[in-house]
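Before a computer can learn anything about folding, someone has to put a protein's shape into writing. The three-dimensional part falls to structure tokens, numbers that each stand for a local backbone shape. The protein below has been through that process, and both of its lines are reproduced in full.
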Amino acid sequence: MSQSHQVAPFDYIIFGATGDLTMRKLLPALYYRLTMGQVPDTARIIGTARSPLSREEYQGRARDALKRFVKADDFDEDTVERFLDMVHYVSLDGSKAESNWDGLREVLSHKADEHVRVFYYATAPDLYGAISANLAKEGLVTDDSRVVLEKPIGIDLKTADEINEGVGKFFKEKNVFRIDHYLGKETVQNVIALRFANPLLEAVWSAEHIESVQITAGEVVGVEGRAAYYDNSGALRDMVQNHLLQVLCLVAMEKPASLEADAVRDAKVSVLKSLVPLDKDTLRNASVRAQYTAGHIKGATVEGYLDELGHESNTETYVALRAEIDTPRWKNVPFFIRTAKRLKKKVSEIVVTFRSPETSLFPARPGRNVLVIRIQPDEGVSWSFNVKDPTNDDFALWQSTMDVHFEKSFNTRYPDAYERLLLDAVRGYPVLFIRRDEVEAAWKWVAPVMEAWARNDVPMAHYPAGSWGPEEARAMLARDGQLWHEDME
């Protein structure tokens, strides 16, 4: 199991090392783990990309990235120098057989038997197979080499299978780490602790006591510099098929036999396979897709999606789905999944609404008990419950809230999701990574939605930037007698 002690010496070979993901996330994550004493000084970070840079030039870019993306209080010159000493660079096109493989082989030849070798593909997914084939052809894949695959794993089931097959020819499944940074978030992992370490919650975590579940990941920003990628992907592929279905699995899964990787992932796959299929007859009432139009955010006027894009598009920036899980635990409990750009507020959270008692001793019906697990920002948990109104002698009720803010409670920096995941790949601990059958099961459930939307079976709705989304999404919840969390407040 993963621990907080120092990992074994490693070589992290990053394909796409000059890209935004590497600079914004991967290098800062490894730097922070060095400051925590988890990265040995003999570890090496070997960047590869097509840019013809010297090692010194790449180290300069790495320094600039740390200066920009590491908090000023955490930027220590001595530690930065230690980190940069680990950084190497090889100009190489990993997708081409005729490239500078000798340069990479030369770097890797030093201490090859002593270091765990991890390849990180921070490139377009359609290159994964070619990079894997070239690594194998050059004799750089050892029996214990690991490979980390960034999402998206395909754009549908067919392309996901092609990617998995292309990589699987050269890497054993146990050495393939499909990363989903949502699973690296401490607050997402905390769902397991909240459910299974607290007898009170474990006892009521079922359809008998839970009325509905909401899972939301909303952003204030628009598509920004990702317009070309986003227009070919959309919110459903970008967020629902991977991140939000993974969160749903943790909320809904049965108690695993242990915290070992396959036990947890078996429990998650069981949830995905129990999702009730969404078909043409149900999708009109169980799905909403929408695009943002011009609006106001924090006093500023912002353009609509089509204006930002510069052309017509049928790509959604908002998704809301109503899902059901066909198991005794969750029979007839609606799970509402929502993600969007340009909402009023940045929010990622899980909202569990408990059933009110059918009869009441009190003059007014008690309000619903609501558990909110805040994934980001302001990570924490809040619990709304009923108490007697102290200003009223007639047993009137007052809804009160207990609120726990994790960062304040633990008095510690909340780590970025990539920090743990990068070192878990070194440890060979895959519990927070996605197994191949999870990818396949998720795509199978999402496929009918994509197909129905492509046929325009569900009309495109619209919502102004800076709002909470289209009215159609409120209407979807109203059919179950439910409200989105922001409308409960």
